[in-house]
Amino acid sequence: MKFTAPAIPDHIVKRKEKLNDEVHHLMSTTIPEKVAHLTQLEHDPRFDLTRLEPPRSSNDATEAEGDEPSAKRKTVDRAMDVIVPNASIKDIYAILKPELKFLLRICLKVSVWIQLLIPRVEDGNNFGVSVQETILEEIGRIQQDIGTYLDQFTRYHLNRTKIISKSIKYPPIGDIYEAIREMDEKEFLNLQIISGELPNYYHSLFDILVKNYAKITCPRSDHHGSMY
């Protein structure tokens, strides 16, 4: 019995054509614009280490706004004094997290585009296919890095919470507050590194797609759109 592949539905063909148009727009417009935009982050004053706020407690703002509290009020407030999230780091998170998620979506879109261009399995003449697979591995590395960065943000908050819980239990120990300050500074430096890597990811993605465009879209010299 001879088996034949089913006909490709029109909506599948149109979906691939739409994806092809979207990736071309990414290569011609979106990715170059992202390289230019993200490169400017190094000049953003919010990434200046000298602007990093020191650890602040929930009572700092209250005492700054109101009158001098009584001795009894101070005792109660000290028991409820909690270190608040670092505003400088929150500001940078608000910049980087959307950018990382956007880059992740681009990587997913480009990966699907390349996967749909991989021809059927055949013996020989597979150099172009190996190029496609190499590019998919590179995109996968970028996706893995993005996941690591996003996990890092969560770990920072969890580890900071552990130190803060000790500051509540042992408020007189100054080294606990110093540990929080050191942790904030380390995270800030990590965020500076991430901001510098973001345009590099886009640049390398653009570079590898442009240089290998012929092999990506036509991995075999005798391949003429055998997918659809």
Write up what this structure looks like:
The protein has 7 helices and no strands. The protein is mainly alpha-helical and 228 residues long. It has a domain at 15-48 and 88-120 and 135-217: Proteasome activator pa28, C-terminal domain (Four Helix Bundle (Hemerythrin (Met), subunit A)). It starts with 9 loop residues before the first helix and ends in an 11-residue tail after the last helix.
Give me some keywords for this one.
Proteasome_activ_sf; Four Helix Bundle (Hemerythrin (Met), subunit A); 228 residues; 72% helix; 7 helices; PA28_C_sf; endopeptidase activator activity; proteasome
Q: Care to give the gist of this entry?
A:
This protein has 228 residues and is an all-alpha fold.
CATH architecture of the domain at 15-48 and 88-120 and 135-217: Up-down Bundle
The global form is elongated
Largest sheet: none
| Cα separation of the termini | 24 Å
Helix share, percent = over 70%
Q: Tally of extended strands?
A: 0
List the quaternary state of the chains.
Answer: single chain
CATH topology of the domain at 15-48 and 88-120 and 135-217: Four Helix Bundle (Hemerythrin (Met), subunit A)
Low-confidence stretches: 71-80, 223-228
Q: Indicate the radius of gyration in whole angstroms.
A: 26 Å
How would you classify the helix and strand content by structural class? mainly alpha
Give the number of helices: 7
Order of secondary-structure elements: HHHHHHH
In the CATH scheme, the class of the domain at 15-48 and 88-120 and 135-217 would be: Mainly Alpha
